[in-house]
Amino acid sequence: xxxxxxxxxxxxxxxxxxxxxxxxxxxxxxxxxxxxxxxxxxxxxxxxxxxxxxxxxxxxxxxxxxxxxxxxxxxxxxxxxxxxxxxxxxxxxxxxxxxxxxxxxxxxxxxxxxxxxxxxxxxxxxxxxxxxxxxxxxxxxxxxxxxxxxxxxxxxxxxxxxxxxxxxxxxxxxxxxxxxxxxxxxxxxxxxxxxxxxxxxxxxxxxxxxxxxxxxxxxxxxxxxxxxxxxxxxxxxxxxxxxxxxxxxxxxxxxxxxxxxxxxxxxxxxxxxxxxxxxxxxxxxxxxxxxxxxxxxxxxxxxxxxxxxxxxxxxxxxxxxxxxxxxxxxxxxxxxxxxxxxxxxxxxxxxxxxxxxxxxxxx
Length: 363
Description:
The structure is a single chain. By secondary structure, the protein is mostly beta strands. Among the domains are: 166-235, Beta Barrel (Lipocalin), CATH 2.40.128.630; 241-303, Thrombin, subunit H. It contains one helix and 39 strands. The longest helix is centred in the C-terminal third of the chain and has 13 residues, at 344-356.
């Protein structure tokens, strides 16, 4: 999923887009603006969704969809009247809304649900793998994890079981490895199903840029493809490497480390995202301030309310301070805020009302 280096930001006049040096590229308007993916950004005006290009022009006009995902492999998942389908980059429905649930395309196939069973369709909407699984995930490196009455398996693109169930839980393949869990211990298998990194960890996640984050006891570190620690366990929490840096947490504050485990941006943030397009979103020390920073740690622009804004999906958010994480599942983003769960559009309107009462032009 290719992301570009324009970033959404909320002003009193609405949401617009800035570049890496804080120049306004697309003027603020009264819409809900999402990040650019595959050179298009989805925007919502009242209850209708459309897509704009990097000049701010509508290339897909506003339409009456309940929700819209970013483009993946040239198609975007849309929902209407409780059913899911796909549009192309011209806004035409190429797969009519017909599925109970669906996800983005990955490696040419998309996972969909029909009558509580999951299967895979191709870009024409035809079933490549008939619905027969209790759960299914995207294809990664030619394999997809699925679950049935016998447990978790990996299947190939023909729907054949390539790695049969032998583990309690599995993650997707990344860089040739998949993290697996058995009897409350985690290790890694290769694409033949062979255990190549022993079940030695209390938790493990996927490889990214040659390193995988793992937990031993209460501390997180990073191992290489041989299972050796390149960064010893020392962090309260940690995230995967992206653009050469990873987010690590010590003493309740987040910062950014290099592949040697050294903090190159000091741990001073209440929360932090991975870098994308040269910038990262961080929650500053005050209770309501967030910002974009560059790889030197320089603050590019500040928003005084809402760490969540550039990640809003088409589902719901909780209105309150950010509290250490979000749940992403099947294209739906739900943030853990106060005690009020509201649609994203209502949250956006709530935030706009808040900044009208403040003295700042930006939130």
